[in-house]
Amino acid sequence: xxxxxxxxxxxxxxxxxxxxxxxxxxxxxxxxxxxxxxxxxxxxxxxxxxxxxxxxxxxxxxxxxxxxxxxxxxxxxxxxxxxxxxxxxxxxxxxxxxxxxxxxxxxxxxxxxxxxxxxxxxxxxxxxxxxxxxxxxxxxxxxxxxxxxxxxxxxxxxxxxxxxxxxxxxxxxxxxxxxxxxxxxxxxxxxxxxxxxxxxxxxxxxxxxxxxxxxxxxxxxxxxxxxxxxxxxxxxx
Length: 237
Fold this sequence. Notes:
alpha/beta; Rossmann fold; eight-stranded mixed beta sheet; globular
């Protein structure tokens, strides 16, 4: 596994690459890093060139001088692809990483071949009510602390990716034409009707609900998830 820091217009992004084959980009969720894919990297790098990225403001990647947004983070991915000399990638996006994959696929469609979205939501109110309330309370708490602490101000920007910065529209999702697998847990923090709405808006999508699983189904049922994702990626070759 090779670790590297990739330059962007506003700081460096950390990632680890391993394996050979078609490129597969792994995008983690809010306040996480590439290590959330500990059960996926050693599985997929047997047949894929795996790129496990720490998104901007997370892990060992720089936060940058300007506020976080999905547009900025999507451009980060373009920088990663350019640095690695890749035209396009397939993606596994978990939670906010799935939301970022949605943004990338709708705004830069030529850069994504296929994607698996795990516990993604294109609107903040796609979260169950109690979970959305937690995001709001966390944001306001960090907003107050951020007046006195730079570290907490940056954390507030990360949390805000789940609220004000999540600005995808139904029209954005309708523009997505690549093969997409939408995955959620039966006990996910995402509303079932929201997951279904995403499936209906993306004409080229499939939907799978993991029984007796939560938002973290990749960690709870890694073997089942990994084999399902490989079947999806290798279908219609």
